[in-house]
From TrEMBL:
Keyword Coiled coil set for record: yes
Positions in coiled-coil regions: 85-112
Name assigned to this protein: Transposase
Keywords, alphabetical: Coiled coil
Organism: Marinobacter segnicrescens
Any one GO molecular-function label of the UniProt entry: sequence-specific DNA binding
Length: 133
């Protein structure tokens, strides 16, 4: 009589789980490759380990954030100075591109349509205020 014992998550030691999670998070292999390499039967077992023991944020809000195309980083971890500089340089580059775009739109309006676009100073409204006597 051939009886095979069905394995469960309890059969894997915590050290083994952490080692697999570490390898997957470092990018050494995908979770499917880890599953094949170590003979892990369940399709979602490694994913469960990643959620429990990994460094990534698996909360619903974080997953929604990732689906929108944002970078996957923990928002509560402080950035290193190098990361902050890179982030600020990207924001500056984007702001410069927007400024160039808006300047070209103003130029087209002035040259092609004869419209004069004037930036209003803050605190000034386009309506004249009426004093009530």
């Amino acid at each position: 009589m051939n009886t095979t014992r069905r394995r469960s998550q309890r059969d894997y030691s915590l050290a083994f789980k952490l080692a697999v999670v570490d390898q997957v998070e470092k990018g050494e292999m995908t979770y499917k490759q880890a599953q094949e390499r170590y003979g892990i039967q369940g399709r979602s077992t490694v994913l469960t380990w990643l959620r429990k023991h990994g460094q990534q944020d698996w909360s619903p809000a974080a997953l929604l954030f990732v689906r929108k195309g944002a970078a996957m980083a923990k928002p509560d971890l402080p950035l290193t100075p190098e990361q902050r500089i890179k982030e600020l340089e990207q924001q500056l580059d984007e702001a410069n591109q927007k400024a160039q775009f808006f300047e070209s739109v103003v130029d087209v309006l002035q040259k092609d349509y004869g419209c004069r676009v004037v930036k209003k100073r803050s605190g000034k409204s386009s309506r004249k205020s009426r004093s009530r006597a």
